[in-house]
Amino acid sequence: MLKTLISTSIVTASLLITACTTTPNSDQQAQNLALLQNNNWELTYIGATEFKADPNARNNPSIQFGSDLRVSGSDGCNRLMGQYAIKGQHITLGQLGATNMFCQNTMQLAGQYTEALNKVKGYQVYDKTLKLLDQHGNRVLEYKIK
């Protein structure tokens, strides 16, 4: 009887400890989501390469995540729009639509930016910084609040 009671106690304690360590903090997730949404994020890095915004450019790469799960922004030339989904720290960008303008000086940047967006699988947001991450947790894009 004593062995059964001790075994049951150990199993119960193990389950409680495991549940506490694997249950995401819903308050933290809500705070992260509040920081992510409804801000105008301006690009600062593509991968490891720092991006310096051109003050004379008509559009610099940026992104906005709405609370209606719509995403919009600019690739430096064209406007982007689409939908996204969030689950914990994972983010899925749906098929993004774009205008079809020709911008002679920024077409290479626009291509790199779009390619990076296609790799996004996760995000980290803190203070005034947003990092969009690939499936391995590597930064593909980084932004600051405008």
Automatic annotation (TrEMBL):
Keywords: Signal. PROSITE patterns: PROKAR_LIPOPROTEIN (PS51257). Residues 35-143 form the DUF306 domain. This is META domain-containing protein. InterPro entries: DUF306_Meta_HslJ, HslJ-like_sf, Hsp_HslJ-like. The keyword Coiled coil does not apply. It comes from the Bacteria. Pfam families: META. It comes from Acinetobacter wuhouensis. The keyword Signal applies. Residues 1-19 form the signal peptide. Coiled coil: none annotated.
